Prior knowledge:
This protein is an all-alpha fold. Helix content is 94%, strand content 0%.
Amino acid sequence: MDNVIYYILALLVIVIAIVVIKKVAGCIIKSIAFAIAVGVLLLIYFGLLR
């Protein structure tokens, strides 16, 4: 019976880890996209408008 509990806990930990990684990866991707957008805007402002 101990093995069944061990496998259930292991499966639960894997599912929680996948959810956390998806949330963190989504946040990182949004942050990178925001930084690229700001960089492009700065490039346009300083490169083309001056």
